[in-house]
Design goal:
2 domains; four-stranded antiparallel sheet; 8 helices; binds adenosine-5'-triphosphate; binds magnesium ion
């Protein structure tokens, strides 16, 4: 792939289920190596959009290119090759509960990589070391904390060295300090591997710290309200709803 090809390019994208549209008029281009945050009220369609961007679901209309390939038009070979370049952390992490962290990370490698078992073992150890979980490598998901499970989920999403990672609410349910460490991990992954990252988040400090761009989904108009660097939404003259999302200040009682 040409390195100048955008990692994602959407034009008039409409996503939904059956003939019910959830969000429409989504248009933006994201360069490689950038971090995009998808933001908006609960139920507005963030996870739905993420699944379409990652090629897991078909758009209702419009186009969406991942690494220059329009997955809804591509033949099955091009589609499969492109899908191999994306890693997913689904909302709620979804590790296999009966497998240790090592086995969880090794599973996609065993399925897709034609390398020896000892190389797979080494790679899994490396991925878990990247997310600071070397000591928990032989633990089951039930034996680790929520923050560790998120990090293990990221390690599994990174198992096949994807060009792009899709992280659906990676810091949901974590305390502020653990959440901050997860932000640093996300930035480290981008810096070390030049991985592009799309994340869904409700946490303003985290979005401002990590994201280069932000898509704000407007649940009243069911359209993309705005696309800009998140710090732009701190300006009162920016998109009104995105601004109120970004500038909500809690006054102590
Ligand atoms: N599999 C499905 N079939 C039909 N409708 C669905 C399906 N999944 C989600 N929806 C609907 O699509 C809309 C958007 O859901 P989605 O999960 O994308 O929202 P979200 O912005 O990710 O919400 P949250 O912030 O709570 O995670 C909702 O109205 C939801 O009920
Ligand atoms: Mg969601």
């Amino acid at each position: 792939m040409d390195v100048t090809t955008p990692i994602l390019k959407c034009a008039k994208l409409c996503v939904g289920y059956g003939d019910v549209s959830v969000m429409k008029d989504i248009s933006f281009t994201l360069e490689r190596g950038k971090i995009l945050a998808i933001v908006g009220p609960s139920g507005c369609g963030k996870s739905t959009l993420m699944r379409v961007l990652g090629g897991l679901d078909e758009p209702m209309s419009g186009s969406c290119e991942l690494l220059g390939v329009d997955l809804s038009q591509a033949d099955s070979r091009a589609r499969e090759a492109t899908l191999r370049q994306s890693g997913f952390l689904f909302q709620g992490s979804a590790l296999f509960s009966s497998l240790t962290l090592r086995e969880n990370i090794e599973m996609p490698m065993r399925e897709f990589l034609k390398i020896s078992s000892s190389q797979i073992r080494q790679l899994a150890e490396y991925k878990l070391a990247c997310v600071g979980l070397s000591d928990a490598i032989d633990k089951l998901p039930s034996e680790i904390s929520g923050g560790m499970a998120k990090r293990a989920g990221i390690a599994r999403a990174m198992a096949l060295d994807p060009e792009i990672l899709f992280l659906d609410e990676p810091s949901a349910g974590l305390d502020p300090l653990t959440s901050e460490r997860l932000d640093d991990l996300i930035l480290k992954v981008r810096e070390s591997f030049n991985t592009s990252i799309v994340l869904v988040s409700h946490e303003v400090p985290s979005i401002l710290h990590t994201a280069d761009y932000c898509v704000y989904l407007d649940s009243d108009t069911l359209t993309m309200g705005a696309y800009a660097p998140p710090k732009d939404f701190l300006d009162p003259k920016s998109h009104a709803k995105a601004h109120s999302f970004f500038s909500r200040v809690v006054t102590p009682k």
